[in-house]
Write a structure and sequence with these properties.
The complex is a heterodimer. By secondary structure, chain A is an all-alpha fold. Chain A is built from three helices and no strands. Chain A has a single domain, classed as Helix Hairpins (Orthogonal Bundle). The longest helix of chain A is centred in the C-terminal third of the chain and has 31 residues. Chain A is elongated, with a radius of gyration of 17 Å. Chain B has one domain. In chain B, strands 1-2 form a two-stranded antiparallel sheet. In chain B, a hairpin with a 3-residue loop joins strand 1 and strand 2. Classes of the chains: A mainly alpha, B mainly alpha. Chains A and B meet through helix 1, helix 2 and helix 3 of A and helix 5, helix 6 and helix 9 of B.
Chain lengths: ~100, ~475
């Protein structure tokens, strides 16, 4: 029997994987993918709660989140392309003209 | 028009102006000059008119957008932010050869998102508004595509912003799971029932929402993007985002935490207390050692976020009114300060080091005088508006029993005076052989700065009327 808690734990694990990816990976595209994993972990949480509560809201919210994630990916990739034109590199460590 | 659409009229005006700006750009012949900023001014004035008409009517649309006086006061602040930003953008757009239509359209779309964020009463709508605002601002940050610093700033801002919105959304997901709804009023009634014995999930939801908002208002330790984004973006954009984004995010922060999560006050106030203290201290102390004026003002803006958090954690009527008044004065002052930086920039030199300001009084006495007014107001000198705003924040903290925070606030204000005055001393008293060469000041931009300076002095000397409005705004919702 798969209960709400199983879904919540799975989504928490996915969220943690995404968070770790943002910090650990050294490639801009992979970092963007990690953020997508985080957003999709949240989507899973919404769907699981929606089903447990017996309301359709959770499922509908996911559509909004997917739209936002798509727009975010478009803007993010555009920024990565404009960065790549300057340095010919996707390694975040090579972008240090502004001190952190 | 059905009555239920009334509450969204201000943001609809601004969004329509944004679309008009985009269409105008599409029909523009290469090299043709079009008064696109004028379209934005028309849209913002329409929004201002609608805001005045909606005042005191408590209009609500779709059950998720509520034009109560609190939201309308912030909307008014955002309209001022929009108008002043459009006013100082002209020289930047010309000099950097930015695509005017896209620049103004993005600025107007971001403003519409900010207005929605300030008036939304549903967590999901707040999230959508936050994204509408943020996506436009990310692009504005990186709009100088030929500048490596600008692209880098945009990426850092984007990365941390998207990361934070994932946290924010996760917090909304847990709140939804607890309350079965994302509407703030329903969350409030559920939280009131559970305040006595909160479950771990409530803490999780609270913590994630605080992280999400903390990033947007640049609270320490979620402030890392701020100096880079503010330095890399064109100064006119920095003026816009350091004020508009902060005003919108704080409006939503106050609304969510002082209405939906008000019953749990005892559980989140300590976390915000620590954020406020850390933000004030770090913003001020690191600001002191900066040699770049834009970075310095970025840390100063972090510090001002800390004062706003003090007002939020106080949470009494005084504190809520103080948030609104502080946001208004901070917005006008900071746009003015970044406006001066924008006017000093030339195509080949940024002129944004503190040493570049040496002898500005001899070269450009007008700009130096304006910058002095803005810096004194940021530092909280009477009779500028910044003094009244800080005074209200600190007395709210003392009244609510947060004497410790008030003391930290006063001490950090005193330290911050050091770095504001450093620029003033540079401008008036430091002789230099190589005075800064800045281009002629366009009329509109100069006029905008003069209007901001007059507003600051007016709010500093006769604040009562605006303070009364702020007090009336908070009584409508909390």
């Amino acid at each position: 029997m798969v209960t709400l808690n199983h879904y919540l734990i799975l989504s928490a694990i996915l969220f943690a994987i995404g968070t770790a990816g943002v910090f650990v990976r050294r490639n801009l595209i992979t970092i963007l993918l990690s953020i997508e994993i985080m957003l999709n972990a949240v989507n899973l949480t919404f769907v699981a709660f929606g089903r447990a509560l017996g309301s359709a809201d959770g499922q509908i919210i996911v559509f909004f989140v997917m739209t936002v994630a798509a727009a975010e990916a478009a803007v993010g990739l555009a920024i990565v392309i404009s960065l790549f034109r300057h340095k010919e590199s996707l390694n975040p460590d090579s972008f240090a003209s502004l001190k952190w | 028009m059905t009555p239920s659409m009334n509450a969204i009229v201000p943001m609809a005006c601004v969004a329509a102006a944004g679309i008009a700006a985009m269409v105008a750009e599409a029909f523009r012949e290469p090299g043709e000059r079009m008064p696109i900023a004028g379209l934005g001014v028309v849209g913002l004035l329409g929004a201002a008119f609608a805001t005045v008409l909606l005042w005191n009517h408590n209009a609500s649309s779709f059950g998720v957008v509520s034009a109560d006086n609190f939201g309308l006061f912030v909307t008014g602040t955002l309209i001022i932010v929009g108008l002043l930003s459009l006013g100082i953008s002209g020289p930047t757009v010309e000099r950097e050869k930015l695509p005017a239509g896209e620049y103004y359209a993005l600025m107007l779309f971001a403003t519409a998102g900010m207005m929605l964020m300030a008036t939304a009463t549903d967590l999901l709508v707040i999230f959508l508004a936050l994204e509408v605002m943020s996506l436009a601002v990310y692009v504005l940050t990186g709009i100088r595509r030929d500048s490596p610093a600008s692209s880098e700033a945009a990426f850092k801002y984007f990365l941390l912003g998207a990361f934070a919105s994932a946290f924010f959304l996760y917090g909304i997901a847990f709140t939804y799971g607890l309350a079965g709804a994302t509407r703030l009023d329903r969350i409030a009634s559920l939280m009131a029932g559970q305040a006595a014995s909160p479950t771990p999930m409530i803490y999780l939801a609270l913590g994630l929402l605080i992280v999400g908002f903390g990033f947007k208002v640049a609270a320490v330790p979620f402030h890392m993007w701020t100096p880079d984004a503010y330095e890399g973006a064109p100064p006119a954009v920095t003026a816009f985002m350091s004020t508009g984004v902060k005003a919108a995010a704080f409006a939503a922060f106050v609304r969510v935490f002082l209405s939906a999560f008000e019953p749990l006050r005892g559980h989140w106030s300590e976390a915000i207390w620590m954020l406020a203290a850390a933000t004030m201290i770090l913003g001020t102390v690191v600001g002191v050692v900066q040699s770049n004026v834009k970075r310095m003002l970025a840390y100063s803006s972090i510090g001002h976020g800390g004062y706003l958090l003090v007002a939020l954690v106080s949470g009494n009527d005084f504190g809520k009114g103080a948030v609104l008044f502080y946001l208004l004065t901070y917005a006008i002052t900071n746009i003015g300060a970044f406006g001066v930086i924008a006017l000093l920039e030339t195509p080949d030199r940024k002129n944004d080091q503190v040493s570049d300001y040496a002898g500005l009084w001899n070269e450009r006495p007008g700009l130096a005088a304006l910058m002095t007014i803005f810096l004194l107001s940021l530092g909280g000198f009477p009779p500028m508006a910044g003094f009244i705003a800080k005074w209200y924040v600190f007395s709210a903290a003392v009244k609510a029993g947060y004497t410790g925070l008030a003391i930290i606030g006063v001490l950090t204000s005193v330290i911050s005076v050091f770095f504001y005055l450093r620029i003033v001393v540079m401008m008036y008293m430091t002789p230099t052989d190589t005075p800064v060469q800045c281009p002629a000041i366009p009329k509109i931009a100069g006029l905008t700065l003069i209007v901001s300076a007059i507003l600051i002095v007016y709010l500093g000397i006769l604040p009562t009327r605006v303070l009364d409005w702020a007090a009336a705004s908070i009584s409508s919702i909390f």
